[in-house]
Amino acid sequence: MAKTIIKIILGVGIALFIVTFAIAVPILFKPFYYWNIKWLDMPENSGFSEETIKTAYDDMIDYLVYGEQFKTGDLPHSEESISHFEDVKKLFSLNFWVLGISAVCIILIFTLVKTKKLSLNSNKHTTAFYSALGLIGFFAAIGIWGAIDFSSLFDAFHRLFFYGKANWVFYNDLEIISILPEELWRNFSILVLSIIIIFVTIIFVHDYLRRKRTLN
Fold this sequence. Notes:
By secondary structure, the chain is mostly helical. It has one domain (2-215). It is built from 8 helices and no strands. Helix 4 packs across helix 5 (79-114) and helix 6 packs antiparallel against helix 8 (182-215). The longest helix is centred in the middle third of the chain and has 36 residues, at 79-114. The radius of gyration is 21 Å and the shape is elongated.
C-alpha cells in the first residue's frame, strides 16, 4: 500500500514537473519572444520600434517574475491591464512553486531508490511511463483543439484561469495587445507542447530500453 502511494506521488510529481518546466521555458527565455517580434512583424503591425517592444516586454516579465515595479516601457497601460497582470503574476508564482516542489519530490524519491532505502523495481512499465502516457493523451487533445480553433482554446483558457473576470480583455490597451498578439500565444503553446513531447519521448525510449534489458 505504501509503495502504491509513493508511486502515485512520483507519477503526479513527474507529470507536474514536466508541465511546469515546459511552461517556465518561454517565461524565462526572453529570446523566444524577441524572435517572435520578427516572425510576427510586430514593428510593422504595431507601429512601434523593435527596441520599444523589447523594453515593454522586458518590463512586464521583470514584474511578473522578479517582482519589479509594473511598467510597460513607453507604452501606456490601464488599470484593467494592471489588474490582469497581477492575476498573471500569481499564476506564474504558482507555476514556479509547483515546479520546485515537484522537483524536490522526484529527487527525494529517486535518492531513496538509489540508496536502496526504497524499492520501486518492476518488470512492468515505470511510473514515469504512465505519467508520460497521461500527458501525451491530455495534451494531444489540447493540441488538436488548438490546431482546429486556437481562438476558442485561447478564450477557454482565460475563462478557466481567470474565472469571473473580464480584465484579460484589454479593450483600452491596444498598444499592449499589439505586442502580445494571439499568434504569439500560439507559438508559445507550440514551444510548450514541443518540450513536453521531448520529455515524453525520452521517457518512452528509456522505458523501452529498460524493459528490453530486463526481459533479456
